[in-house]
Amino acid sequence: MMTGTPLSPLTSPLLAHIRHGFFTREGGVSSGVYESLNCSLPLKQRGEQGEADKQDDKLENLIENRRRVAAYLGIEATHLLGVIQVHGNRVVTATQSWALEKAQQADAIVTCESNLALSIITADCAPVLLSTTDGKIVGAAHAGWRGTLAGVLEATCEAMVVLGAVRQNIYAVIGPCIAQKSYEIAEDMRETVLSGDKHAASFFIPSSRLGHYWFDLTGWCVFRLRQVGLGTVHALNVDTLSDEKRFFSYRRGMFARQTQLGRQISVIAPRIEKS
Question: Using CA atoms, how far apart are residues 82 and 205, in angstroms rounded to an integer?
């Protein structure tokens, strides 16, 4: 059981100046297929590929798991914000906290309010955390292939610019997600991606199966962020599918014919000004 283990978030030196973490599935109270730090929102969510996700974890578990994450980062649980992710490009600018049951449909959040924390949940899609070099403006984006194609990363950067950020002074870190070696896709998905971004061709390599390819989601996200003109972009290059001990994975669940799935959380909060 993982319920007795401590929380074990991954961090990046690029974001060392602010509170952040790409949390694993370790250190929570959920059990069974949700073991243990399942941080799905305590309301009906949508699956990693857009279909309905049956979330049967106990409400009290979801609330406690998210509370533990907030406490780990020194954040009030009520100020740990989330959105209902729908694989689009909508970005919410947070100016105050909201109850989780009031969460909007979006795939990214930005803020400059130091008392707020932004969260994204994933289970193979890429969690992307962004911050200005001074840590005053931050963002969090959920970047699956659909959302990336729709421009969610570019929209997140633009929303940060509206708040006062300068693109060259924005750091972006891509957290644990499905790696190219684990992400075999069919020709129809490749054609859909290429129809919207011809530059994505270099992120597909043929697999041994005719008409199938290995897709580098991380590399594509890095490319898109650099095209926007960000100062520094870094990827942790940690594969969610192959590391069952530490990560939930939609595709792993799909292979096992599971209809229920937990999600790990990634969190970022602006730098607190010292008085």
Answer: 35
